[in-house]
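Following up on my earlier thread - several people asked me to post the actual chain instead of describing it. Fair enough. Here it is, all 103 residues.
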Amino acid sequence: NNNKINESILLLGCGNSKVGEQFIIHSFLGPIIQIDISSKVIQLMNRRYEKYFKEAPIKRMEYLVDDAASGLTSLEPGCIGGGVLDKGLVDVLHRSLGKIDMR
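Reply from S.P.:
Thanks for posting it. Predicted structure:
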């Protein structure tokens, strides 16, 4: 579908999830700004996607250390136009609905 809107999405509490990658694989134009409070996790994710970041003509994913509870100080006002996904909330909802096998 060539009519997809090119607006950024903020992914809160990204952890080491591949959710952002899945957006890209499924033709979301992005960018996808992924945030986690853990600097170690963000370093891991930046290393995981280092080759992509170097080779991609347009940066469609970004990882930042920040805390949503503190007001997301690393973001420019108005930089998110497409929506916000709280990854932690999605995980909790799936578990409570029995969608994820925790074995």
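The longest strand covers residues 32-36. That should answer part of your original question.
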